[in-house]
Amino acid sequence: MKDISKDAEYKQLVENIGSAYQSAKTRIVSAVNTEMLHAYWQIGKYIIEFEQGGKIKAEYGKRLLEKLSKDLRLRYGKGFSRSNLNYMRLLYDKYPAYEKLSDRLSWSHYYELLKVEDDLAREFYEKQAIIENWTIRELRRQKKTGLFHRLAVGKDKEKILELSKQGQIIESENDFLKDPHVFEFLNFPENYQYNENDIEKAVINNLQQFLLELGKGFAFVGRQQRITLNNRHYFIDLVFYHVKLKCYVLIDLKIGEVEHEHIGQMKLYLGYYMKEVNEETDNEPIGLILSEEKDDIMVEYAMLNDKSKLVVSKYQLYLPDIEQLKNKVKEIIEK
YhcG N-terminal domain spans which residues (predicted)? Predict the structure, then answer.
């Protein structure tokens, strides 16, 4: 008797059934998330309308959530802690028009977003979570490392406002600029005597988090990619391909301060890829030098009138001083 499991049409049948089942599960989860988000928004609306209706005196306002939490948990069980009710109230307060909420984000996403007090930063994280399809864990990390403020430093007021409204979409080499890139996920202990090879290996072992830090659209090509010129071998630390920009992205990791010869070396790599590796459909490659320190004036002079797509950016292995970054952005906005 013929083994039907080896039949191509049967295999396709299994695939079709599995695809339909998984799609249904996804739609169910999405529908549940949408309905729960709407319910929590309504609860927040009821609480605020009750408060604004003068039903309670202002000095008793704090007690309202405590009383509500106790009564609702007795009647409906878990889910109505004072903290949850407070964030439901905040949800309506920050999003009085329900249509402004995205059906692509869950209540857990908005719970995290509502912890961000700055409206500009919250709008950015909301847009970016949608663009990048962030999980809750990814959203928490980007908040913790101050992504909005790292991207906003160095931009003028209009660019910061645009960033908060639209999120960050990588459209050119300048969109790789962050001040600094944060690689805390590499988990190097403080005072550890690491070298460039250690960082490179750690990046490969944590490639998903590294790509999240770089931004959307990167495909990993390889590490220590060798090129040969004039009978000499050169090795590029990391090579990626950016799907949207349709170009190779060459990355060199440097311990300490970036030097002008590092910039010259990256220009050599870019020239080689442009002439020897690029296909007709590929755009000009982008070079990204990541260093612990950089002298902005030296970098400016080393790249004066240069046409190559090269970015020099700092990285650090530990969390940045978020308050300092916030203050820098605040200064720009106020000016």
Answer: 17-150
